[in-house]
Amino acid sequence: MRWLSLVDGHEELEQWVEAEHARVVHLDTPLAGKVASLISGSDALRGAELAAILQIDHLFHKRFDECSSGERQLVRIAHALADSSEALVLIEPFRHLDRFRVEHLTMLLSRLTALGVRVAYTDRTREHTSSVTFDVNPTVNEPRLVVTDVSYRHPLQASYAVEHVSYKAERAGLTICIGTNGSGKSTLLELIAKSVRPLYGKVKWTERPVYLPAEQEYGPFPHAKNRRVAQLQAVFASEASLFLLDEPSVGLTEQERFQFERALIEKAMTAHILCATHDERLIQAADRIVCLSNGTLVFDGTVAEYTERSALWSHTSSSC
């Protein structure tokens, strides 16, 4: 399995594709329909095996647009692998995945390599780029957000994406919302932003929040060279008191992440930021942690309380 750098242009990618006669798979392609039909195609057995290997067979009865950003990424990968190829280049395959699914996908791709499938991939987080600047404008107004017992279920789905969740914020600070792919983080942020309406419960805020979704193809600056950096620069320039950021650091290089973290901490001194992420460095910088599991709030407390109680965090942090 080979990583292809794109910093100096696309020459390395193009050379590998030509030499290996590889199929390039872009994982930001919009898909529509039920997951089962997207994966299975004309070979139901291959689709079922791919779903089992990627641990997404529970998504078969969901529509693609009902999946979380991480789940969509896995469905796109399964959709790409459904077509047999001897050589593949996956463009940003690890985007939006939690730590454990990254490890699992790495193991799967290594296994495909051992079986004779030549696999290469791009990963912008490994690139070295020049630093960027995030100018932070302070907030004047006091933030106020009250989420009371909200529940939401996608149409025609039996289970709730978010169920009986309450959250309150009346001061500046950084809250990190964590949970595995599909736990309900993105849906909760959509409910707070009022992009979707809860079936039960209420969301109240005194000032409309700035909401940045996870998917890069959405939101402002569609033609910017580095769209995510441009979006984040606009976020920090805002003087709003409440911010909802969904996986903001995904796709940033190490240099960009360093500057982003600095700006995020500075902004959180005057505004309330609720950030859904798998980024362990952002978890360490948080004032408050909320954890979702299957749409339910299972923890709400300080970082110290979370690290003391979490067996997974103690394991992963010791291995970083």
3D structure, described in words:
The protein has 320 residues and is of the alpha/beta class. The protein has helices at residues 11-20, 35-40, 44-54, 69-81, 99-114, 185-193, 227-237, 254-267, 280-285, 303-309, 311-318; strands at 2-3, 23-26, 87-91, 118-122, 145-152, 162-169, 173-178, 200-205, 210-212, 242-246, 272-276, 288-293, 296-301. Helix 7 (227-237) links the parallel strand 9 and strand 10. The longest helix is centred in the N-terminal third of the chain and has 16 residues, at 99-114. The model is unreliable at 217-223 (pLDDT under 50).
Short description:
This protein is α/β, with parallel strands linked by helices and 320 residues long. Helix content is 35%, strand content 22%.
Keywords:
35% helix; six-stranded mixed sheet; four-stranded parallel sheet; 320 residues; 13 strands; 11 helices; alpha/beta; globular
How would the blueprint of this fold be written?
Blueprint: E1 2-3, H1 11-20, E2 23-26, H2 35-40, H3 44-54, H4 69-81, E3 87-91, H5 99-114, E4 118-122, E5 145-152, E6 162-169, E7 173-178, H6 185-193, E8 200-205, E9 210-212, H7 227-237, E10 242-246, H8 254-267, E11 272-276, H9 280-285, E12 288-293, E13 296-301, H10 303-309, H11 311-318
Parallel strand pairs: 1-4, 2-3, 3-4, 7-11, 7-12, 9-10, 10-11
Antiparallel strand pairs: 5-6, 5-8, 12-13
Helix pairs in contact: 3-4
How many beta-strand runs? 13
Strand order of the largest sheet: 9-10-11-7-12-13
Unreliable stretches, pLDDT < 50, 5 or more residues? 217-223
Number of helices: 11
Radius of gyration: 20 Å
The arrangement of helices and strands along the chain is EHEHHHEHEEEEHEEHEHEHEEHH
Main structural class: alpha/beta
Secondary structure: helix percent: 25-40%
Instruction: Estimate what percentage of residues fall within beta strands.
Output: 15-25%
N- to C-terminal separation? 22 Å
How would you state the average pLDDT, rounded?
A: 87
Report the sheet with the most strands, covering strand number, pairing sense and barrel closure: 6 strands, mixed
Global morphology: globular
